[in-house]
Design a protein that fits this description.
Helices cover about 45% and strands about 20% of the residues. It is of the alpha+beta class.
């Protein structure tokens, strides 16, 4: 079967049965193009409790709910949908979506693929564990989705017009997602700091470990720390370890070697060298100047 808008399910059979209108577009190989539009369409009317699927597609599809409510079933999740929600179908995942029993949804959709898609989806707020985003600040996204669904390819220039609309769609979603970035980054920062405090004594603690724990790229984690704390992740870890070391030097009689180990340094010489570079004196002299009674 060719990579058409039918994907692995015969969507043509749904046109009359499910009251949808539908356009098939694909004319190029998506594996060599930044973005290719596969299909688009809309739901003209719906019935209470109507179920779509189970279905599997060979490309990405975004549905945008323009009215009503429903549910999206993917993996082991049941995700409620409301007006203003957009949900993502990923390639080769079995999905179902169902209209509400009392207020069935209507929607537009667009199917696409290409080498830039993962980057665009990440910037839009979708991820491995986030299948929906919300856009309810104005009618701009609905207008763009309607234009896409009403576009029929009749010439090569129409294909570029269609791509332009799809990029406009992503521009709106990405801009909308930016307003939520601050809150998301604060959550990442909180999770990272909790992880750092828990693993501060572990010499194997690394930026990559923390990024893996949170589920984001290490470069994004760096930006979160730089933007919110004006320090890199490594600088924060070093400061926390040195602060702990200064407390132990001042209030305990533990050896320099033991303190370096308790604070997560791989060896005492590394600890002493870093301490001197940051504090201007050795750990031993710091202890002599700041020794307190336990």
């Amino acid at each position: 079967m060719s990579k058409s808008s039918e994907a692995l399910t015969n969507i043509q059979n749904r046109i009359n049965r499910d009251h949808i209108y539908y356009n098939a577009y694909i004319t190029r190989d998506a594996s060599h193009e930044p973005l290719v539009v596969y299909q688009s369409g809309g739901k003209k009317r719906n019935f209470p409790g109507h179920l779509s699927g189970p279905a599997i597609y060979d490309h990405y599809i975004i549905h945008y709910i323009t009215s009503g409510r429903g549910k999206y079933f993917v993996e082991d999740k049941s995700i409620p949908l409301d007006k203003g929600d957009a949900f993502l179908i990923r390639p080769y995942e079995k999905v179902r979506y169902q209209a509400d029993d009392t207020d069935p949804y209507l929607y537009y959709w667009v199917g696409f693929n290409g080498t830039e898609v993962k980057k665009l989806l990440t910037k839009s707020g979708f991820s491995q564990h986030h299948f929906t985003i919300r856009y309810d600040r104005d009618d701009a996204l609905q207008t763009i989705m309607k234009q896409i669904s009403e576009t029929h390819l009749s010439s090569p220039s129409q294909e570029y017009y269609l791509l332009g609309l799809l990029y406009q769609m992503f521009s709106l979603i990405i801009d909308n997602n930016k307003s939520q970035d601050i809150h998301i980054d604060q959550s990442y920062l909180y999770t990272a700091m909790c992880y750092i405090r828990t693993h501060l004594t572990d010499p194997e603690l690394s930026v990559q470990n923390i990024a893996n724990h949170i589920g984001i790229h290490r470069s994004h984690l760096y930006k979160v720390f730089r933007n919110t704390m004006n320090q890199s992740v490594l600088e924060v870890i070093q400061k926390m370890r040195l602060d702990k070391a200064k407390q132990l030097l001042s209030y305990t009689s533990h050896s320099i070697t033991d303190i370096s180990s308790v604070c997560g340094f791989s060896d005492a010489s590394h600890f002493s060298a870093l301490f001197r570079s940051k504090e201007g004196i050795t750990p031993r002299i710091y202890r002599q100047k700041n020794k307190q009674e336990a």
